[in-house]
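I hope you will forgive my troubling you with a question about protein structure. The matter concerns a single protein, recorded as an amino acid sequence and a row of backbone structure tokens. Please examine both parts with care and let me know of anything in them that strikes you as inconsistent. Here, with my thanks, is the record as I have it:
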Amino acid sequence: MTAKPEHYDVIVKPVITEKSTMASEANAVVFEVATAASKPQIKEAVEELFGVKVKAVNTTITKGKQKRFRGQLGRRKDVKKAYVTLEEGNSIDVSTGL
């Protein structure tokens, strides 16, 4: 199947942190996704782009913090993350590009 352009709008980038590396041991991958994306949209996009079977999708929204930048008060953006659990035998290597 071919990936639709809107699939690339749903998934922004993979999240590579210590916590996401721990999740990958449990056959899960963490992606930063569009804040308006729903769980079925995320599931469809991951299955189409990476050619894997998705078991479950859990999402979290992290609120942006207020931070100072050069003395000026600024605000980081809100971020939505999707923890995508894959079926047995499927895997995604996030260290390589699409």
Q: What stands out?
A: Residues 39-50 form the longest helix (12 residues). The mean pLDDT is 89. The domain at 5-86 is CATH 3.30.70.330 (Alpha-Beta Plaits).
